[in-house]
Amino acid sequence: MQLATQQDVADYIIAPDPGAARLTRAVEGVDQNGERSRISVVEERPLTIFLNAQEIVTAMTIGDYPEYLALGFLRNQGMLLPDDRIKGVDYDEDLETVVVRTERQTSYEEKLRKKTRTSGCAVGTVFGDMMEGLEAVRLPQVSVRTSWLYTLAARINRTPSLYLVAGAIHGTVLCQGDRPLVYMEDVGRHNAVDKIAGWMMQTATAPEDKILYTTGRLTSEMVIKTAMMGIPVLASRSGFTAWGVEIAREVGLTLIGRMRGQRFVCLSGEDRLMRDVDPATVVAEDTRHRRKSAQG
User: Is 97 helix (H, G, I), strand (E, B) or coil?
Assistant: First the structure.
């Protein structure tokens, strides 16, 4: 694999920190030859999210950026409204809780009774009426250059990450043009995208000209969250689910999967693509260096 250059990493506003002590742990085992082996494995911790005085959910997460995760989860579930004024976001590491406080009084007892377990890793959970806001989604008709997609795939794939250190993790990257901006990882792709949603909310970042890139499958949950965030393009190295494709077509989201080397497949929103580069001129990806998700 081509190693990351200083420019590749410097371009990020937030990049993975694979050396952070709390995110991995060294564990001893035995390899196929019966010899002792010591490897790094990803940590997994519970994080309980409160909205004001109400407990909403306990998520399993690697433990970084808990405030962004809480804000993004609540926003993507429709529990935080666009005009809500946030009074505070308080994280208690010892209690493993985040409390988001708003000026508006909130109560979601009925919503909490309608939980849906998703296909995401680490037991993703959404709430039963999550799709209700989709009919109001109007995604912008922006152009997406295919040269951007090839550049993003190459740069993200060689960015130092927890995946390359320990595996067993998903990555989601917020991009603008051919520049990756914010790269979040977690044991569930839903957590990674919620962290990005929380960062966008906290920083008042506009979604209209952004691309969301994920290493995981393009499921209904990923499509819904991307559309609700107002991002018009979702791309992945991995494959699709039928419902994910159907929802993307309904909301007008550009959905691109199986991105590796010179190839990709667009199953929705092809009208946004501007084919400004000949795929034959793109450097083919060495099969020895593909992530596992590239096989999906």
Answer: strand
Q: 59: closest CA among 98, 87, 90, 21? A: 98
Looking at the whole model, is its pTM more than 0.85? yes
Q: How far apart are CA 235 and CA 170, in angstroms?
A: 14
CA angle, 244 as apex, 241 and 248 as ends, to 5°?
145
Q: Quote the CA–CA distance of 142 and 138 in Å, as a whole number.
A: 12
pLDDT tens-place string over residues 248-270: 999 999 999 999 888 999 999 99
- Give the pair of three-digit tokens for residue 161: 């990450």
Band (278; pLDDT cuts 50, 70, 90): very high
**pLDDT one-digit tens code per residue, 182-225:** 999 999 888 999 999 999 999 999 999 999 999 989 999 899 99
- Which residues on adjacent β-strands are paired with residue 49? 57, 98
In a 13 Å sphere around the CA of 166, the CA atoms on its Cβ side amount to 27
Q: How far is CA 48 from CA 7, 94, 171, 204, in A?
A: 37, 12, 22, 25
Whole-number Å distance between alpha carbons of 31 and 35: 5
Cα–Cα separations (whole angstroms), residue 108 to 58, 82, 212, 287, 293: 15, 17, 29, 48, 36
Bridge partners of 48, per DSSP, are 58, 97
